User: Fold this.
Amino acid sequence: MSIRFTTPIFDVKNLNFKVRDQFILSNVSLEIFNGEYIAIIGPNGGGKTTLIRMLLGLEKATDGVIKIFGKKQKNFKEWNKIGYVPQRAAQVDQNFPATALDIVKMGRISKRKLFSRESQEDRDAVIEAMSKMDILNLKDKMIGTLSGGQRQRVMIARALASNPEILILDEPNTGVDTLSQQNFYKLLSKLNKEEKITIVFITHDVGVIADDIGRLFTINQKAIICNNPKEAMSCEEMSELYGISAHLVHNHKHEH
Amino acid sequence: MLELFQYEFMQRAFVAGILIAILASISGGFIVLKRYSMISETLAHAALVGVAVALVSSYNPLWIAVIVSIFAAWTIEFLRSSFALYSDAVLSILLSGSLAIAVIIVSIGGEFNTSLFTYLFGSILSVSNEDIFTILIFGTIALFLLVLFAKEFYFIAYDEELAKTSGVKVKFLNFLLVTIVAIIVALSIRIIGTLLIGALMIIPTIAALQFRVGILKTSLLSLFFAVSSVFLGMIISFHFSLPSGATIVLCVLSFFIASLFVNKK
Assistant:
């Protein structure tokens, strides 16, 4: 895969995160470039989610530097460029008074200016995001009545509604059935290839998407970056970091 | 029925009551969805400290109640965001602390009299023109801010972290929401009473949620239940010589019970 070395979307240098003197992340440096499809793997408790939360400004680094689109994180304001789908995407409060449309509309708030009302552009972007996720038929359905897979699509549509340049997904498959998962992987690949959206994706199913991803980050307190994911698991260093002797199983049925 | 509108005090009561119903139900919607319902009770008790100060110092109780209630709201939000304390415990501490302070102030002033009783249970029929003026000024500001930031408040209620990652100023807006709620609670206690205002803020939204519809319809239903309850409650209390605040609460409670049948599985 060719990567255009322009300003990285995320530029992380020597990032440390400690909780009560214990390192959760230690000396992590990485870059994420426009157009990439990156999978993040690692054992539970290894710091994958913490890393994502730090990139998004939800946790403060003990030390280190995070730059987003070339700006220091504290000066970065254009959050509409980043779409985030959290781990709990498929779990929602059953009673929350929101239709699928209400949720997707929330994605436009990052673009909203004070005193501005919903514009035609907002409405078009919301409908477009829902069409991409194939959930237009669900727009008036209450979020609590949707299946796990449908909610996941709603949450991705919400993230897409601000026309982001990068989509960050934190194990969004939790609580979603296998068929929905397969469709979901196809969709991510399509968003990356056709819409040119950079994808960063925490997953446990790296074997299934090995043919799609460009780079693989393994996070277990430290970060190991593998530029050839198909050979990732043969990399001794990575297996050591993951804590197990692992083999990558290619999914040959996977379509492109 | 129309004869009760001939009385000037009833006209004032209806205007004040309906204004409070609109404000309480709209602001209440956001705090219910944030699972923060108890804050209205706590702020009402904090407002009572303001009333106690006003009663012993002869200032306008409504203004002092607004100031003390805002101060309490900021204290709650500060404690909640700065210390590892459970939100409900913070509310409980402030509630009993405020009540204790109010009782001490009034007893030092030597006047544990009927005035304080009025603020505990509300007395809509004694609303003055000055009260209406104060409710109109503060109420308009509060309503303006609620409508201006409605989308952000709704997003924060849905998922605070997700809102933060979308660039929403969550901390500022959380402070703003509790400030607005503090103002509305303080304005309401004269009419509905400290012990009953929570009902008018919370129950209309809970009743509306039983219909399982989107946010706009939920807000409109909640508004309908609150305004209807105030309207019906005042008519019933006038005809049967019942306390207005308590009658209003029983009306809104009836809407809630009826709504449970809508959502019966």
